[in-house]
Design a protein that fits this description.
The structure is a single chain. The protein is of the alpha/beta class. It has one domain: Metallo-beta-lactamase, Chain A (4-Layer Sandwich), CATH 3.60.15. It is built from five helices and twelve strands. The strands form two sheets. Strands 5-4-3-2-1-12 form a six-stranded mixed β-sheet. A six-stranded mixed β-sheet has the order 6-7-8-9-10-11.
Length: 208
Amino acid sequence: MKITKFLHSCLLIEEGDLKVLLDPGSFSFEESALDDLPKIDYLLITHEHADHMFIPGIKKILAEYPGLKIITNPSAEAILKQEQIEVSVELPDFVKIYEVPHEKIPFGVVPANFQFDLFGKLTDPGDSHSFSQTLEILALPIQAPWGSTTAAIELALKLKPKVILPIHDYQWRDSSREGMYQRLVSFFAENDIKFIPLETGIGVEVEI
């Protein structure tokens, strides 16, 4: 499985001939991280917040790849349909979905949130630290207004995935992110978990 991060929570998952894009949000488009995106087959959106579902960016991707299938929760689907963006009604075999709570936020309404399990290998929980199971590769939100790095670490130690990929960390300065990544590499290694510091636009082959 090849995984490429395009800032924050946006991941490109490549498995065999399939390419799946997760949570292309406003940060990824504003920083032009997705300008050279390859042809993708599926677009998965955990929830409707703009840092995960950026309507102008999604329209741009659809203009380039009109056959793209989109999968998301009913609340986000309703917003997309208002923008004349169709959502797929068929769930492919390699995707399993679970509704897990979005963590409490200081402003606005807490949205519905999906956890995606992909290819029997990778779990992406969106904006949740309140899920109880993971596959061997976990895309872990590690920094957010609704959560903390400490809570993320405690959750990972409880669930014990084999591999952790950091997501939801755009608000850190680059130097802070790099320093924290290195500390997390060492910390999780002591707990028999591999933490992979993803760099924007650089694909990583993840073996389990």
